[in-house]
Structures are given as structure tokens and as C-alpha cells.
Design goal:
Layout: H1 6-10, H2 17-39, H3 44-65, H4 76-99, H5 105-112, H6 115-125, H7 132-153, H8 157-183, H9 189-210, H10 220-248, H11 250-257, H12 260-271, H13 281-297, H14 302-307
Helix pairs in contact: 2-10, 2-12, 3-9, 3-10, 4-8, 4-9, 5-8, 5-12, 5-13, 6-8, 7-8, 7-13, 10-11
């Protein structure tokens, strides 16, 4: 049987009916995450802490039973990339979650999904040559982000600040992706995830203590919403996307994630009765189109080369 190559891994594969169904459920899950977060009255640091702590606690029994053998012989240096990924993930949540209450949910989601833009730029800084189509995608996404910010200036400076935080969250997510790619060269997925999520939760807990932000004492409604966010984002969202990753490839999964933008817009309309300004819609469409072009045109080895 012919060995797989990096190009095979990143090629577009025809998804099976099962894969399409799982991705559809996953997209619904991640589309619910942002609007549900906007409904929670609890501090955003608390939301992020419990989401990551619960994710680590859920996966720990699996790691200690079915994948315990992968822990044999591990040294601290094997965990450094996972710890770094956890730091970037904490920065991502600390920046992005507040933006959901400062600008519209749809604008925040559109801007935070620009993560592939930042990983592509990191690859270029690392010396990787990018195809011209990637640069056109970058330009399109930047124009879209500028349109969103331009419209938000007419709304309030708070909305513009929210746009900035969403972009900062995307940059931090880019660091998380790159560090995670390197970590998974040495660790099983469950080991990487437990270390990363635990690190993220610990950092967020320390930040909450320093900022005097409570991590408990919330209303029953908030606890149910936090549990729902953890379920839809971690289990229905990221877990199902990881499940189909090997069969459909990273390109299809990355493109599917972009459906979170219209999905979140629809959910925000229903749950929050919140609609972005009509003039911002072309900007959101440009961001999604630009990111899709970058994802589709990126070299198969870009992520690996940038992470090493």
C-alpha cells in the first residue's frame, strides 16, 4: 500500500455521508458557542476557565486508561510545546470572549476565524514561500476586516475595540495552532489536549485571582449556560471535527469551520435578537472568502514548516 504524503493529508477528499453529518453537527455546535457565551452574566475568565477545566477532566480518564502507554518515557521537553499551546489558548480566550459583548457576535466570529491568515504570515516569516493565491486571500481578508471596523466606528469606539480584541484572539489562536502542531509530533492527542487545557485553565485561574474575578457563586442559569457551552463547543464541535479530520483532511475541516460565521449570525438573530449592521455584511463575506482562499491555496507543509 502506498504511504501517505503531506499533500495527501491536505488534499480535498470527498466526504462520506457520515462525515457530512458529523461536520454538520459540529458546525451547529461551534455556531452556538459565541451566542451562548454572550448570554452568560458570569465573567468571561470564569467561562473560559470552566470550559477548559471540564475539557481536561473529561479527557483525563481516557488518557490514563486507553492511552496510558503513550506516557511512558515522556520528558519535560516533550511537554513544552503543549504548555506553550495552553498559554496561547488562554490568551485567545482572554482576548476573544470579551469581544462578544463589545461588538456584534457575527463580527466577532468573522474576525476570530482569521486564524489561518496569521499562521500563513507566521510561515512566511519562517521563510516559507506562499503561493500568490494566499496573498490575494490575505488582501481580501484585510479589506473585509477594515470594512467591519469602518462600520463599527459609526456605532461606537467600544465596538471597534471589540473588533480589535477578536483579531487579537485570532492571532493568539494562530500561536495555539502552531504550538499544537509541534506538540502532536511527540504526544498522543489526548495527552496533548489534557496538558494544553490544564495549562490554559491554570493560567486563567491565576489571572482571575490577580484581577479579583470570581470563579464561582454564579446563578443556576449561568452554570447551565457554561455547561451548555462546554458541551456544544468541546464535544459537539471540536471533538467531532477531530474525529473526521483523518478521513476528510484538514482543508475540508478548516473550510467547514468557516460556516460558523453565518451559523453564529443566525443563532444570534434567534437567541439575542442581534443583527450586525447591513453595511458590515460585505466585510464579513470578504473575510470568510479571504480565509477560505488562504486555506485552499496554502502549501500542505506550511503549518509544519512554520511550527519547526
Amino acid at each position: 500500500m502506498r504511504g501517505s504524503t503531506a499533500t495527501d493529508a491536505w488534499a480535498l477528499h470527498r466526504p462520506s455521508g457520515r462525515d457530512v453529518g458529523l461536520m454538520a453537527v459540529a458546525v451547529v455546535g461551534i455556531s452556538l458557542s459565541g451566542p451562548l457565551t454572550a448570554l452568560v452574566a458570569a465573567p468571561v475568565l470564569a467561562i473560559a476557565f470552566w470550559r477548559n477545566a471540564a475539557g481536561a477532566a473529561t479527557l483525563l480518564p481516557f488518557l490514563l486508561t486507553r492511552e496510558r502507554s503513550t506516557l511512558i518515557g515522556l520528558r519535560f521537553r516533550d511537554l513544552r510545546s503543549s504548555l506553550l499551546a495552553g498559554l496561547f489558548l488562554a490568551a485567545h480566550f482572554a482576548a476573544w470572549l470579551p469581544s462578544l459583548n463589545m461588538t456584534t457576535v457575527a463580527a466577532s466570529i468573522a474576525l476570530v476565524t482569521t486564524t489561518p491568515i496569521w499562521t500563513a504570515l507566521a510561515a512566511r516569516l519562517a521563510g516559507v514561500r506562499l503561493p500568490s493565491a494566499v496573498w490575494w486571500g490575505l488582501v481580501l481578508a484585510v479589506v473585509g476586516a477594515a470594512l467591519i471596523a469602518g462600520v463599527d466606528i459609526t456605532v461606537s469606539m467600544r465596538a471597534v475595540a471589540g473588533d480589535g480584541l477578536a483579531l487579537l484572539g485570532a492571532v493568539a489562536a494562530g500561536g495555539y495552532v502552531l504550538a499544537g502542531a509541534r506538540a502532536r509530533e511527540r504526544l498522543a492527542t489526548s495527552a496533548y489536549t489534557v496538558v494544553c487545557y490544564s495549562t490554559c485553565a491554570l493560567v486563567l485561574a491565576v489571572a482571575a485571582v490577580v484581577a479579583d474575578v470570581p470563579l464561582a457563586g454564579f446563578s443556576a442559569r449561568d452554570w447551565w449556560l457554561i455547561a451548555a457551552i462546554t458541551f456544544v463547543a468541546q464535544l459537539l464541535g471540536h471533538t467531532l471535527l477531530n474525529l473526521v479530520l483523518s478521513s476528510v483532511g484538514p482543508t475540508v475541516v478548516s473550510l467547514a469551520v468557516l460556516l460558523e460565521v453565518p451559523g453564529s449570525l443566525i443563532v444570534a438573530l434567534v437567541l439575542l435578537h442581534q443583527a450586525p449592521p447591513l453595511l458590515a455584511l460585505p466585510g464579513m463575506a470578504a473575510v470568510v472568502a479571504g480565509v477560505a482562499l488562504v486555506v485552499r491555496s496554502s502549501r500542505p507543509t506550511t503549518l509544519v514548516e512554520a511550527a519547526t
